[in-house]
Amino acid sequence: MRSLPKFDRRAVLTGLAAATLVGFDRQALAQRSYQSERPQTFSGSEVVTAGHRFFGGTSRGLANLVERATQQWGHPSAYILGQEGSGAFVAGLRYGEGVLYTKSGNGDTKVFWQGPSLGFDFGGDGARTMMLGYRVRGPDDLYRRFLGIDGSAYLVGGLGMTALAADNMMVVPIRTGVGARLGVNGGYLKFTPSATWNPF
C-alpha cells in the first residue's frame, strides 16, 4: 500500500501567495483596462469656445453654465450643436436635430431627438441648443431615452440648462430663448439616427 505524501505547509503557503498575486494582477489589469476605456473629455474652455461660435453674443452666460456643469459633473466627453422646436398646451412635444462632436475620433455625426413633456407651459418656441454629453463615446451611446433629473433648471444670461440621464450617462441641454418653459422637466428626450415624428 502506497503511503500518502506528507503535508508540505511551505508549498501550500507558496501556492496561496502566488494565487493571491495573480488575483491582484488581474484586478489591477481590469482597473487599468477600465480607465483606458474612459472616453477623452473636452476642457471647459473648448466647450465655451465652441458654444460662443454657435450662440454668438451669450458667452458670459454660457461660461457660467459650463462652469456650473463641470463643477457638478466634470468635463464632457461629447457635445451636440443643433436646433429644436417645441410646443405645448400643458402636455408638450419637442423635436430637434444637430451634430454630435466627440474626442474619441469617431467623427461628427448627425443626430435627432424627440420627447414629450408635462407641466404648466403653453405656446411654442424654437431655440439653438448645445448639449453636453458625459460618458458618451459616440452616437450609439445616445440612441436611447434620457430622463430628466429632479426637474433641475438654471437660468443665466439668456441661456437655460437642464439635465437628463440614462445608463450611467448624462446629457445636459443648454438652450437659448428660455422662459417659463424651462421649468418643464417632467419628460425625456429620445435620440435617434434619423428623423421621426414619433416621440415615444
Automatic annotation (TrEMBL):
Stored InterPro entries: EipA-like
Domain of life: Bacteria
Pfam families: EipA
Name listed for the protein in its UniProt record: DUF1134 domain-containing protein
